[in-house]
Amino acid sequence: MTRASLDDLAAFAAVARAQSFTRAAAALATSTSNLSHTIRRLEARLGYRLLQRNSRSVSVTEAGEALLGALEPALESIGGALDALDLGRNAVSGTLRLTTTRQAYEAVIRPVLPAFTAAHPHATVEVLIDYAYRNIVADRFDAGIRLGEKLERDMIALKVGPDLSMAVVATPDHLARSTPITHPSDLTRHQCINYRMVAAGTIYAWEFESDGQALDVRVSGPLTFNEPELMLEAVLDGVGIGYLLSHEVAPYLENGRLVRLLSEWTPSFPGFHLYYSSRQQMRPVLAAFIEAVRGHIRRK
User: Which residue, of 88, 112, 139, is where some domain finishes?
Assistant: First the structure.
């Protein structure tokens, strides 16, 4: 059914309810002659006379009564749906779908959730923890949070955290029974905790840089994980050397449970960014969430 035929059916229902072309034309903001032409066109298409007309009144034929009985509930339902959309245009409601890493969730999303959900009781937040970069348009996400250096150019990005750095760490006991580490290449002779990038199907090579020299080192060791939290636990257990975000290991460096190595080879890089597509109209629930994140940043 084309859009024009839906308009024609709505016009018929308006005339049938008003029992007058003049009153229906006024309600539809059209002319009586144009409305009369619309009804004749609809009747010709259907092959039935729907309205009986004379100089004084308009009445509905038997075929028209049957059609009107089916139309009115449908038109009322469509009208209600359109009204709901109009009311919801500026309402913070519906499901907000976010893709993020565990670290970004803890740093950016988790702190704002209590206030956001309390302020917007008709909104639902759905979070998918995933370490691969997701196509948020194709995968129907409203937004994602990833490291700034990983974002594509056609995304609108908001920086939602400070610059970050990686840290090579190990327990004092582990280092006491190991040979000294003064250069990233020394790591190839030590037991390290590896990280598997599931989406890429490969083991992550540890990235280093110093004085403009970039170096990737592929390490080996007894354990491989796809969760940084498990890598940290293995390092704390003394199984091997780890390569983790510096803010995640900071408490253990402060209390002496871990020692940092090669700090001059791990400069800072762009931190977490909330990103969304420039090709999509922003939903109110996403706008409200972004404002909640901004408010949290301002208060920090």
Answer: 88
Single out the residue of 53, 277, 260, 295 nearest to residue 152, CA to CA. Answer: 277
pLDDT band, residue 28 (cuts 50/70/90): confident
Domain range enclosing 215: 166-265
Angstrom CA distances, 101 to 3, 84, 191, stand at: 44, 34, 26
Residue 120: which CATH number? 3.40.190.10
User: Both 258 and 182 in a single domain?
Assistant: yes
pLDDT tens-digit series, residues 183-239:
999 999 999 999 998 877 899 999 999 998 999 999 999 999 999 999 999 999 999
- 156 with 278, same domain? yes
Indicate whether 70 and 41 sit together in one domain.
yes
